[in-house]
Amino acid sequence: MKQSRIVITGVGLTAPNGNTLAEFRKNLLNGVSGITTVEVRFMGRHPAGICTFDPLKYQKKKDVRIGTRAGGISIYCAREALADAGVNLESRDRSRVGIYLGITEHGNVETENEVYNISQFKYDTKFWANNPAGEVSLNLGITGPAYTIGAACAAGNMGLIHAAQMLRLGEVDFALGGGVSESPQTFGIFAGFKSQNALAAHADPTKASRPFDKARNGIVISEGGCIYTLERLEDALTRGAKIYGELAGYHVNSDATDYVLPNPERQAECVRKAIAHAGMTIEDIDLVNTHATSTPQGDIQECQAIAEVFKGRSTPPHINNTKSFIGHAMGAAGALELAGNLPSFDDRVVHPTINVDELDPQCDIPGLVINRPKKAERVDVILNNSFGMLGINSTLIIKRYVA
Q1: DSSP class of residue 45?
Q2: Residue 216: CB partners within 8 Å, gap ≥ 6?
Q3: Does the annotation count 270 as an active-site position?
Q4: Which domains does the chain have, with CATH numbers?
Q5: pTM of the prediction?
Q6: 3-state secondary structure 122-184
Q7: More reliable by pLDDT, 119 or 323
Q8: Any catalytic annotation for residue 162?
Q9: Which of 155, 209, 299, 343 could link 151 by a cystine bridge, Cβ 3.0 to 4.6 Å?
C-alpha cells in the first residue's frame, strides 16, 4: 500500500537564542550564543540555556502557576506553530487532531522541586507526572490523542516520527509533533551529569558548549521547545498551505551496550537505515545536523559513525552542530536543531558549529562547517541525528518539497 506523503506546514519554537524561527535562524548565522548561567541548588552557578518567551501570551497567570514550565513552553510553541501554519482549530474536528511531544525529564522536575518545597515547609505542591501534551490539549481544546513520549534525548525526533506514523495510519488528520524541555529547572539533572564528569565548565558561558573542540569538557544543560504542524500532503495542498519540507525517512534503534557511552556501530546503522527508508543513497544527503553534545568521548564516537556511513562518497555532505549555540535542550534538541536548519532549503546557507578554537583531530571529518556559515551549491536533503542515554538512537530525514 502506498504511504501518504507527510509534510511540515508550521513551526513554533522557543530557544535560548530566539523565540521565532526567523530570530533563531538569524542568530545561528550570526554566531550568537544563547548560553548564560543559572544558580543551581547546592551547586552554585553553572552555564545553561534559558528561554525568554512570554508565557502569558497564550496563558492566564493562574494557568502558568498551576501548570508546568514544560507545559508552558509547549503551549507557546503549539500556538505559534498553528499561527504559522494558518490553521484555525474552530473549523476542524478536534477529535481528529493529535499531539505527540517528546520529553526527557518526565515528571522529575516537579517531583524534585516540590519535595524540596515540603522540606522547607511550603505545601503548595503539584505532584503529577509531567505531561506537556496534556497541557496543550487543555489549552487548545483538542480532544484527539495527546500524549508525551519519553525517549531520552532522542525525544524531539520521536515526536515528529510518531506524528507522521499516526497520520499515515489514519488515526488523526492533523498533528502537532516535536519536543520540549525544562531541564535547567532541576538540580537532579545537573548533579547527574556532574557525577559522570560530563557537565561543561567555562569562564565564558557562551563558549561552554563547544562540540568537536579539543578543549570541550561537557554538556550545557538547556531548555526549549519546538513543535511542528504535520499534515498529509493532499490535505496541505487542498488548503493551500506553505510547505517547509517533506518527511522522507527515519529510523530508530538501540545500542543495548551501555547506560551512557554511545555505540558508533549502532549509530551508523541507524543513519544507514534511515537513508534506506527514505529510498535514498548517501550521495543524496546534503546536510547532516549532528547530535554531538560536547562530551569528549560522545563527539568522537558520533564522528566515527558519520565518517563510516559517508566514506567513499564523491564529496562529503555539509556537517554542522546546533548545540554549540544553545546547549543541549534534551527532549527538545532534535526538533529545535532541525528547525535551525530548515531555512537552508531556501537560502542554501549552512550554519556553522561555533566555539571550535582547536579542532580535535579525532573529530576532524570531511564536511564540517566550523565557526562561519557556508554557502552550499545544493541543500535538498537534511539528515538530523538525535541520540539519547541508555542507547536510543534516532535519525530523521527531511527533504525539500517537490510536487
Answers
A1: E
A2: 200, 210, 294, 295, 296, 299, 360
A3: no
A4: 6-238 (3.40.47.10), 248-399 (3.40.47.10)
A5: 0.95
A6: CCCCCCCCCCHHHHHHHHHCCCCCEEEEECHHHHHHHHHHHHHHHHHHCCCCEEEEEEEECHH
A7: 323
A8: no
A9: 155
Distance CA 78, CA 70 (A): 12
325's grid cell: 549555540
**Using the 8-state DSSP alphabet, how is residue 5 labeled?**
P
Q: Which three cell numbers stand for residue 294?
A: 560536547
Dihedral (C-alpha) 104, 142, 235, 24: value to the nearest 10 degrees?
-40
Decide: 308 and 264 in contact? Cβ < 8 Å.
yes
Q: Which residues of 119-139 are buried (b: 16+ CB within 10 A; e: fewer)?
A: eeeeeeeeeeebbbbbbbbeb
Q: Quote the cell numbers at residue 52.
A: 525568554
Averaged pLDDT, 4-10: 98
pLDDT at 358: 98
User: 153, 226, 303, 363: which is the annotated catalytic residue?
Assistant: 153
- Asked if the model's pLDDT at residue 116 lies above 60, the reply is no
- Residues composing the chain: 403
Give the Cα separation of 270 and 37 in Å (integer): 35
Q: CA dist 383 to 53, 139, 284, 288, 396, Å? A: 28, 33, 10, 5, 6
Task: Give SS3 for 26.
Answer: helix
Helices 333-341, 155-169: axis angle to 10 degrees equals 80
Q: Is 226 marked active-site?
A: no
